[in-house]
Design a protein that fits this description.
It is a single chain. This protein starts with about 30 loop residues before the first helix and ends with a strand. The radius of gyration is 17 Å and the shape is globular. The protein has 2 helices and 10 strands. By secondary structure, it is mainly beta. The strands form 2 sheets. A 6-stranded mixed β-sheet has the order 1-10-7-8-2-3. About 20% of the residues are buried.
């Protein structure tokens, strides 16, 4: 006798029509930190993040990481210029590390839609302490 699916049965997560995984409706109640923990964060040297392109869901480059800082409340932020030409120039914005994941030699923005980037506040020096390039932090990993 075939198994009958019930409406309350959880459905497996899978990316539909895109290169990167996106949170599904069943993850909407999770905080960015909880989502990051589900993405198997791994150790990375801060200096290896500098210069990496940050890409949206459609693999469009939003900018390149210029600095990794720790805010006074302990959060890690990736600072990059946004709004320039081909990912260069523009005003600096801070992207919370919980909203991105690393894939090979680029970063995928998973929890921050491209449309929200112009709304991000301009990052000002002094809003955080730069993390030395040889320090090790954790970042989520992504897959195709």
């Amino acid at each position: 006798m075939p198994a009958v699916a019930h409406a309350e049965d959880p459905k497996p997560m899978r990316a539909e029509g895109g290169a990167h995984t996106q949170p599904g409706p069943e993850q909407d109640a999770l905080t960015p930190q909880q989502r990051m923990e589900r993405r198997f964060p791994q150790k990375v040297r801060v200096g290896d993040l500098i210069g990496l392109p940050m890409q949206d869901y459609d693999d469009r480059v939003l900018g390149y990481v210029k600095q990794v800082v720790r805010t006074p409340d302990g959060h890690i932020v990736l600072v990059m210029p946004f709004g320039g030409w081909f990912g260069y120039g523009g005003r600096p914005v801070g992207v919370p590390i919980e909203t991105v994941a690393i894939l090979a030699r680029h970063l995928n923005v998973l929890d921050l839609p491209r449309e929200d980037f112009p709304k991000l506040p301009t990052w000002k020096d002094g809003e955080g302490t730069p993390i030395p390039p040889d320090d090790i932090i954790r970042i989520a990993i992504s897959r195709r």
